[in-house]
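Q: Sequence in, structure out?
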Amino acid sequence: MENQERSTFKFGFNAGAENWNGRLAMIGFVTALVIELASGKGLLHFWGLM
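A: Exactly. Output:
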């Protein structure tokens, strides 16, 4: 039961929020990596910020 409670979404500081933060960080990192590999440019160059 505890594992199921950790994966539910709740606002505030709790174990479930830490899980979601980690998942979204991993998705963002993989997305940045795919953009860099597909375009041959760094992420900031791809967006025109550098």
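DSSP finds three helices and no strands in the chain.
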